[in-house]
Amino acid sequence: MTETGIYIHIPFCKKKCFYCDFNSYTGCESLYYVYTDALKKEIALRKDTLFNTVSSIFIGGGTPNVLSAECIKEILYMIYRYFNVMSDAEITIELNPGLITEERLRIYQEIGINRISIGLQAWQNRLLKKIGRLHTIEDFIENYRISRKYFSNINIDLIYALPGQTFEDWKETLSKVVELKPNHISCYGFILEKDTVFYNLYIKGKLKMPSDDFEIDLFHYTIDFLQKCGYNHYEISNYAINSYECRHNILYWKDMQYIGFGAGAYSFDGDKRTGNIKGIKEYIEMINNKRIAIIEEEQLKKKDKMSEFMFLGLRMMEGVNDREFKHRFSKSMFLVYKDAINKNIDLNLLMREGDRVYLTLKGMDVSNNVFEDFLI
């Protein structure tokens, strides 16, 4: 039976970070319980849209831990009720430091959550303040300490090449995080997104961006340092102790099926991608009145599915295997993408080993340029 994943979106935050363009909103405390009820209704209403075994559940946001643990419990129990969740499924919840309590952690553990992802971003308090985070490094250290009492699988999210961040800042961040021995570390290069506080500052000339060369230097240092510390670099932005790779994200990168619940959540059944309305009130209203919140629907053509399979798969260090491509599309990627593959091999951006192609280090530096060559 084909495995699949479930994503649950919690679109609430106490404060919007200055770099964030995710579908999240502040000042919506009065909607927490109403939204929870709408989520539960959507899960029940869409119970017949997924027949596969669920191998992973990811509760993301926003900031999921602004909701009470009882709300999370009610949502997760609806998933258990209507979907066939594997006994060893990976079940993750994203948490922000400063809002983590021992009582919440205890309940999370009791309801089957077995992996937590903590958004640290930086080790220095001055940087945390500069990017709009509410927590301090002291909050994080205390929260991590109590989290370890309940969870043996913890990811820490970090951002490099932040405005105002020095090389020494990043070295300290990685060093201090590794000392804590998390199972998984995600390191994302800073991206200036439209409609964010940072973007508005930038267009006014009030925000200095780091150079591309500086970002690449930080990226290369990250790979080298974390690999020396025992972390497997298995995807462009992700590092894990062996056997702790994120199953849910791998499902995305391998272009497999998933269903998303909540405002702005997307689903993919292998042929069709659908998206829910983003606004919280609009989502609640549509679920209550129309029994569905989907406003986007795209039937993918074969060429689109092949392209996505390639550029998503190339994000992983193992790259893309022609046997898997043939199994899915009945064609060889070496025929379909002969020119793109050969061009990037010649530029030392791709490497071929037998039936497999994967990004070189130089290719990772300009991965978006490589991916564009597979859009046909």
UniProtKB/TrEMBL annotation:
Single GO term (MF): metal ion binding
Stored PROSITE patterns: RADICAL_SAM (PS51918)
Top-level taxon of origin: Bacteria
Keyword check for Chaperone: yes
SMART domains: Elp3
Single Gene Ontology BP annotation: porphyrin-containing compound biosynthetic process
Record domain Radical SAM core: where: 1-226
UniProt GO cellular component terms: cytoplasm
A UniProt-annotated Pfam family: HemN_C
Keywords: 4Fe-4S, Chaperone, Cytoplasm, Heme, Iron, Iron-sulfur, Metal-binding, S-adenosyl-L-methionine
Localization of this protein: Cytoplasm
InterPro entries: Aldolase_TIM, Coproporphyrinogen-III_oxidase, Elp3/MiaA/NifB-like_rSAM, HemN_C, HemW-like, rSAM, rSAM_sf
NCBIfam families: hemN_rel
Entry similarity comment: Belongs to the anaerobic coproporphyrinogen-III oxidase family. HemW subfamily.
Protein purpose: Probably acts as a heme chaperone, transferring heme to an unknown acceptor. Binds one molecule of heme per monomer, possibly covalently. Binds 1 [4Fe-4S] cluster. The cluster is coordinated with 3 cysteines and an exchangeable S-adenosyl-L-methionine.
Protein name, entry field: Heme chaperone HemW
Organism: Aceticella autotrophica
